[in-house]
Amino acid sequence: MAIAAAIFISRPPQTRRFSVASAPPFRSTSSLFDSLRSNFSLKTPNFRVSASSMSIGTSEKITTMSFLDRKKSGFLHFVKYHGLGNDFILVDNRDSTEPRITPEQAVKLCDRNFGVGADGVIFAMPGINGTDYTMRIFNSDGSEPEMCGNGVRCFARFIAELENLQGMHSFTVYTGAGLIVPEIQDDGKVKVDMGEPILKASDVPTKLPPNKDQSVVKSDLNVDGVFWNVTCVSMGNPHCVTFCTKGSQNLTVDELNLAAIGPKFEHHEMFPARTNTEFVEVFSRSHLKMRVWERGAGATLACGTGACAVVVAAVLEGRAGRSCTVDLPGGPLEIEWREEDNHVYMTGPAEVVFYGSVPL
Question: Which residues are catalytic?
Fold first, then answer.
């Protein structure tokens, strides 16, 4: 696979107008690429990034629709989005129930040195079981998660652009975690009905013995000789949430060596399907801060399902109320666990980064 062809950079509406031709450092587009051709080339076997075949344009000159309507065979057209820095390659796959690329190709695309760079590849596919659309995801390691909270917000904005939807809109999305209903707000943020949290230990799944009804709440987990208090929640995908080690009062999450501790939770024998892990610091009953180690992606800037699981766990442990701001490295999410319907609602942004094409 070669990465080349085209990248079209999106710019927020409020950003000052800019063109390559008028920028002081570059007198013309051709001079920019002359410089790139002479100074930039990255190659790996069967996978290439080549500046000589790249073109750049702003979103003034191109729209998602016109870009993705290009039918040139042998190319994958995509749009890169991010939700608080949790970034994804979005692919229009509405004409097929099979993903356009393989998990192995997704791994290469997600590589941040030799590929496009992303936490995962998301496919917008035809709806099933009466839903409007289906969302599937390949993680950066090639695994396929049930769902992704930040990803579904990006998915919603992608669909809105593909379908040219304006203003507030909601639609139904089939995922591996079941039915998800995102709603695009007037301010451009996306509010998502994430459904009911799953608390039964065997359904999370975890092998930790239930200690509160059928749930695991503030239970001891031995990780390399250190006992952590953990609460296990599924938002359609498994989460292990911890606020402290046994005997301590609170975490200072910025002090954690996430790369060292995260994999030990993810692959712990108590989690047969592996797990996402959230480390949480409590500022108040409505303000939490978390860092996340995601199953199949590692440390990321944000995790929507993780933020939902954190609020559920905080309520179960008596640490917070049902409506919280959750700070993630990439920014805040608003999470509400409604008592009246037992559903969790997540609200946050999703933004276009750029449009691109990849020779397959």
Answer: 148, 303
